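Each letter names a residue; structure tokens follow underneath. Both lines appear below:
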Amino acid sequence: MNRLSKAPASGSRRATALAVALFVFGFGQELWFRYLPAYLRTLGASAFGVGLFGTLKDLLDAAYAYPGGAISDRLGTRRALLFFGALSTAGFAILFLWSSTIAVFAALFFVMAWASLGLPATFSLIGEELEGDRRIVGFTVQAILKRIPIVLAPPLGGLLLERHGMANGMRIGFGISIVLSIAMLVGLARALPRDSREAPKRSTAAPVRLRPALRQLLIADCFIRLCEGLPDVFLVVWAIEIVGVSLAQFGVLISVLMATAIASYIPAAALAGRAEKKLFVLLTYAFFTLFPLAVLASRSFGHLLIAYALGGLREIGEPARKALIVDLSEPAARGRSVGLYYSIRGFTVAGAAALGGALWTIRPSLTFIAATGLGVLGTLWAALFLPPAGRLEEQSS
């Protein structure tokens, strides 16, 4: 009998509660989060200011990852998730009550808490519950639950903005997020049982070190996330200001991207159990590299639909990559190991959006060309230096 079948009923209840929380919280935030760069433009922010916003987002991702793992290891999943969710709700309230560029930057410190601080806890939980190739399935389910709201919410958010205007539409979106997040916190507090696994734990003071194969994956990952980060906050600006699509059409593009990603997860997860994980990592890195080129070549809504479908395939190897991270992390300090990995990656790529903004002010196409070059470097690094499956298994044992 496997570990999953031995898990108590409360484990299934915890997983279901977390799944519902991911959906509800994500739906409320995705109504407006991807429109924040355009919202900043209406508030008077320059292209460089939008880039700084993206850089702050990346910095917070980096700064929150390791503390999130340490807090989760110490407090337990239940208390940590409730704390992180409450912080994000406070960020929504700031955005609702205060309309200015300063408010957007200030609120981001709180809004990012749920996703960034809670990431190591999610990885740790999947690592504890599942073993071997079943972790890929676990990360596939987690990825789908996070991305279904991204399929549904952005088109609705775009329609909301077109009907009520950018300022009023965003404020309505912030209000919806507050209501949904409060409901999520109440439901999560009632649904998550206080069992022995949720008792506070003291983190060991021993330093966490990344294994050699995990370091090679991290280096390649940094190049790829730089490729993603340079144009990321400018995708909505390119679509609306350069190509000339509507806000609602941009929401459709996000839905196409996420629907393609979701469609690719299940067959990729099934095949990853039979094929080498490294192959799927290389495949996902190749699509990361091709996406900015496809967007750069787009001159119509139809072209962007094709580009964003291609962009959705960037996720085809993400469950395998995440499973590799867990496989190669120290079991006794998995939360801190995952947090350290994402902190290093986050700080490395934190300046990507600002660099993208600087290149944009020279010529918008430079942002996408530079991103493609970084993607090529990351793909080549993984191909050359990430060990094959046999040696990876040796390091994870």
